[in-house]
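TA notes. Do not distribute before section.
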Amino acid sequence: MSVINTHYDDWDNCRDNHKCFICGDNLSYPFAFWCEGGNPLCICGSCRQQSKDGLIAVAAIMDLQDLKLSDRDVVLVRSRRQDLEAEAEKQRAKEQATKIVSIKKERRGDIEIGG
């Protein structure tokens, strides 16, 4: 997909020959252009801006699925960075506490080692 910013980029005169695929309005610069197999797809700047979150989410989910981390579906959840960092810190603290409890049990003999 290309972004056509000016008439200098518009080598196929898309702005004059095509309409926005989403809203059906005439195109104005900038707009997105994609052509595969002779079927051009143009999306005006306004629609592209409104749909960017969905398109970015789809791309992110596909990238995650390509990693093949698991057999289950991957879900993209939008969160603030502060919330993610706080959750990560809680998880680290929980893991550290679990390690401490495990070491204490091991020292008391509650856990068989090498069992």
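Switch to the second chain here.
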Amino acid sequence: MRIDKSKFFGKSITKVIKNDDGEEIGFIFNSLKGKDMDLFLGMQNANDTETQKRAMEILFNKVVKDNIPDATDEDIKNFSLNFFLQAIEGIMEVNGLSDKDTEELKRKYGQR
């Protein structure tokens, strides 16, 4: 019996994110892949906040570029912290990370 390899490519979810004006926007979040392992481990590295911050920025940029292909790096740098935190929550949710992990990141990087 052969197993369909596509069953292991991960999943996607659509999550509603609110901008600072309260407008709801559907964003697609994809599961991290094996090639993203360094970013995942960096995000979980509680002892090195610089590595953790950089990994989250890279993942955030990836999500934004997947959903808003014409967004420039400068645009992304100017997105609100509120939007950033919601996007990180989406990344964590699609990858099955715990609410505890999400709450810890909110505590570290600011509340919504």
